[in-house]
Amino acid sequence: MSKSPILERAQRFLMVIRHCQVLGVSIHSADEKGLTLRLPYSESIIGNPETGVIHGGAITTLMDTACGISTVCVLPEFEVCPTLDLRVDYMRPAEPGKDVYGFAECYRVTREVIFTRGFAFQDDPQKPIAHVVGTFMRLGKNATRPPKAAGGAQ
């Protein structure tokens, strides 16, 4: 049985994000309803060595990535959609020694902007670590990087 096209696009998207590779982020699930990523617990993401609690920046990275990749769940083809705005409301610290999951969904798609929301959790999605809302600009499926300026400056 082959993977779904949404899951395949989400995995390709995640594979090119270097900091997610370093963090070990992986796709837990992806379909037309949304996307869930997994951030494995490791010593490299501990924010407080005395308690072992994960640094908030790792949670923010997880949720920005989940929201960004969730765009492939609703768009018919891959498009470049950079983050315009991201708000993360932390509800409580993550428990040390446990992986963190980040769910995100797109709840409104316009010609220019995609609106997302989601939450981070560990064992129980009903007990979130954080809530997130984000907006992403649609640049279109044919968008490319701008050419480098003379002398290598960008």
Topology diagram in text:
Layout: H1 5-15, H2 18-23, E1 26-31, E2 34-39, E3 46-48, E4 53-54, H3 56-69, E5 83-90, E6 100-109, E7 113-121, E8 130-137
Antiparallel strand pairs: 1-2, 2-6, 3-4, 5-8, 6-7, 7-8
Keywords: Hydrolase
Pfam families: 4HBT (PF03061)
Domain Thioesterase: 52-127
Order of adjacent strands in the largest pleated sheet: 1-2-6-7-8-5
- Radius of gyration, whole Å: 16 Å
Distance between the termini: 45 Å
Q: Output mean pLDDT.
A: 90
CATH class: Alpha Beta
Q: Could you tell me the strand content as a percent range?
A: 25-35%
Helix and strand content put the structural class at alpha+beta
Helix-strand pattern: HHEEEEHEEEE
CATH superfamily: Hotdog Thioesterase
The CATH architecture classification is Roll
Shape: globular
The major β-sheet equals: 6 strands, antiparallel
Number of domains: 1
Instruction: Count the E strands.
Output: 8
Helical fraction equals: 10-25%
Counting DSSP H or I runs of 4 or more residues, the number of helices is 3
- CATH-derived topology: Thiol Ester Dehydrase, Chain A
Residue runs with pLDDT of under 50 for 5 or more positions:
none
Could you please describe the fold and organization of this structure?
The chain is of the alpha+beta class and 154 residues long. The chain has a single domain (5-142), classed as Thiol Ester Dehydrase, Chain A (Roll), CATH 3.10.129. Helix content is 20%, strand content 34%. A 6-stranded antiparallel β-sheet has the order 1-2-6-7-8-5. Strand 1 (26-31) and strand 2 (34-39) form a beta hairpin. The chain is globular and about 50 Å long. The N and C termini lie far apart (45 Å). It comes from Pseudomonas schmalbachii. Keywords: Hydrolase. Residues 52-127 form the Thioesterase domain. This is PaaI family thioesterase.
